[in-house]
Amino acid sequence: MTTTRNSFRPWVIGLGLIAFGLATYLLIADTPWDAARETAERIEAGKRARPEADFVTGLWVAAAANLVVVLALLATVKVWLPRLALGPIAAEKGCLSPKTRLSSGFWFGLVALLLVGGFFRYPLASRSLWWDELWGIKFGIVGYYIGEEDQPVEDRYFAEANWRRALWYYTRPTNHPAASFPARISHVIWKSIADPEKPHAFSDFAVRFFNFLSSLGAVAGLALVGAAWGRPAGGLMAAFFLALHPWAIRYGVDLRGYSWVMLWTVAGFLWLAALFRSGKSRWWPWWGFGINQALLVWSFPHAAFVALGFFVAAFFLVFSGWKEKPERWAALGRLLLVNVAAGMLFLQLFAPNVLQMTRWYESVNANHTHHALGTELLRELAVDVVSGQPWRISPDERAQGYADLASLGPWLWPVLVVLGLTALWGAISLCRKNRVALVSVACVVGAGALLLVVFRLTGTFFYTRFAIFLLIPFVLLLGMAFEPAKGNKKWLPALLMILPLVAFFDATWKERSNLRSRPFCPMHEVADRMAAIESESQTPVIFACYGHSREMMPLYAPEVRGAVSLGQLEALASEAKTNGARLFVAYGYPAFNRAEVPDGFTWLDDASRFAEVASWQGIDPDSGFTLLEWRGEKARE
After folding, report:
1. Which of 290, 354, 516, 595 is most exposed, with the fewest beta carbons within 10 Å of its own?
2. How many helices (H) does the chain have, and how many strands (E)?
3. What kind and span of H or E run contains 194?
């Protein structure tokens, strides 16, 4: 194993160009000192600091840090770039299945699964967004109106979003740049085609389009993972479970980073398979693996645990894949290099976000003490992985058509046992035949366990979706159990495979129906009804939204006013009475709002003051909306 001048010259040139680019940026770009000076001037003038100051500081500091890393790589190029003469020999040990030639039936099945996955995802993707998604719409994708609420919309200034804010606006943890940046691309394309009259207009499906595609990409990727492991039937079954899983459907189209976490987790399994299947020493699988690591963490920072799991898996497999010590060190050098490059890419992309995170993290964590990880949240996580729905809801909520796993009654434990044993059998079958696959799955599951331990020890706020990547190894293990053994023509094992299918459908069909028939939160539907009322009304109309969601309703209906107290409702009623206008008030999240802003409901619940116009349900019991009309002169004084 030797390194020649010709072998490392392209690397020296490439790294030199990167160093030159970074140095040039540091010289010509605005500096942190420029940003600090501008911020001080704004504060002195009584204005708030702009997040763009963090953009400048973060990008400059990241470029400086990356320049140091590149120079270090240049200085040590002969150390980390020895020639890797041979590819892994794991296949000779029986660790890997041989390359599988995929039949036309496989591709037909994959296309069918994509159609099924799209069928169950499109209705939810094309309906109204909810609060967290609309935060990204407001600040990073579309924009919002600036001005007083009682001003006519045409007299206000529309602050259009821009590409920088799509990537780096992070004053709250609700704008996920991995979702917002592609969404801005699709929004700009939609806007150029649809040519809407109003600058605030956007399409729910258009902004979710790339998330929709990434969700289907994860389905397709799972089938390919199975094929790469020499188990095409098992891969198709894993894709089948993911295509129909309610948790994957819900967060597959949610306009945040969770869909991308699932996609890059699936891609991580593919890149590991590519690294340790080949008998050659090509660089492209290594770079693909490294870029995937960066994209995974960029999609959602907590996915750093998954990236760590993939790194540990690759590290272990290097030692089992190469016999000779020099070859092992060469492979480890490549592994470290591409992960260092991944860290550099992530740092450059996310440094401005980290700076903003330091300003809100403690306060957000303090406001979510009720979401510290405990036994109840652990149970909810397990239930989400299995069925994508709550563990238990009230009888009234069940009567409204909402699903929970506990409603299975006497069938609950048989369903859980069958699914658990199926996943266990999938793991056993991998253990017997495919070490790379088993190690990959085990390390991702271990990464999930480590994430949970960290959250438990630190008391940091936790939502089950933070660990959504655990769904991928679960459905993979389910799918692997369906791979038929070669030469096995017995009918009994095949017949027994009907049981996990029945169990899966029994555990998930109600929630799938819920996701197909309702929006996340029906704000767009409320806004459409308001527009219809205004167009038909012969008198002036005032619209308001009470409590939580008053900040986001104007993204669909800019004329909507906000109210958070009884006094503000009284003022709106007085204004309507004075101007001879009709007053409509919408409110959503009824349980949350009744707890947070209860005084306004002394009016809103009074049938002598307000009459219900319409109500809509969301996918969660507390995400519905109600639209009321003030009775005007008929209202009780």
Report:
1. 595
2. 26, 7
3. helix 177-194
Q: Which residues contact 96 (CB under 8 A, 6 or more apart)?
A: 90, 229, 230, 276, 277, 434, 435, 436
DSSP state of 461: B
In 3-state terms the chain splits into helix, strand, coil percentages (rounded to 5) of 70, 5, 25
Our measurement of the distance from residue 519's CA atom to the centroid of its chain's CA atoms, rounded to an integer in Å, reads 17
Distance CA(510)–CA(494), nearest Å, equals 27
Q: How far is CA 519 from CA 51, 250, 383, 411, 587, in A?
A: 32, 10, 22, 29, 16
Locus of tokens 């929004």: 187
The CA distance from 629 to 604, in Å, is: 9
- Tally of CB atoms within 10 A around 28: 7
Of 465, 438, 446, whose CA–CA distance to 305 is shortest? 446
d(CA 166, CA 151): 28
111: which 2 tokens? Answer: 């296309």
- pLDDT-based confidence at residue 489 (cuts at 50, 70, 90): low
| Residue from 443, 402, 410, 441 nearest 423 by CA | 441
Helix (H) or strand (E) holding 561: strand 561-563
Q: Are 514 and 401 in contact (CB under 8 A)?
A: yes
Q: Which CA distances in Å does 457 have to 377, 446, 454?
A: 14, 16, 5
pLDDT tens string 98-152 = 556 788 999 999 999 999 999 999 999 999 999 999 999 999 999 999 999 889 9
Of the candidates 299, 309, 217, 300, the residue with the CA atom closest to the CA atom of residue 263? 217
- What contacts 261, CB < 8 A, 6 or more positions away? 296, 299, 300, 303, 306, 468, 469
d(CA 58, CA 32) in angstroms, rounded, equals 8
Provide the pairing of β-strand 541-546 with 561-563. Answer: parallel
Give me 535's structure tokens: 């167009």
Give the CB-side neighbour count of residue 339, counting CA atoms within 13 A.
16
The Cα 477–Cα 425 span in angstroms is 8
Cα gap 198→196, rounded to integer Å: 6
Is residue 613 within a helix (H) or strand (E), and if so which, with residue range?
strand 610-616
CA nearest 215: which of 178, 182, 181, 259? Answer: 259
Q: What is the pLDDT of residues 305-317, one digit of tens each?
A: 999 999 999 999 9
Round to whole Å and give the CA distance between 293 and 38. Answer: 36
State how far the Cα of 166 lies from the Cα of 255, in Å rounded to an integer: 12
Instruction: Please give the full DSSP string across 533-598, using - where no structure is assigned.
Output: HHHH-SS-EEEEEESTTTTTGGGT-TT-EEE-SHHHHHHHHHHHHHHT-EEEEEEE-HHHHHHHSG
- Its pTM stands at 0.94
Looking at the chain, the whole-number percentage of residues with pLDDT higher than 90 is: 74
What's the confidence (pLDDT) of residue 88?
Answer: 64
DSSP 140: I
**Phi and psi for 486 in degrees, rounded to 5?**
-65, 130
**Residue 479 CB coordination number (10 Å):** 27
What is the 8-class DSSP label of residue 598? G
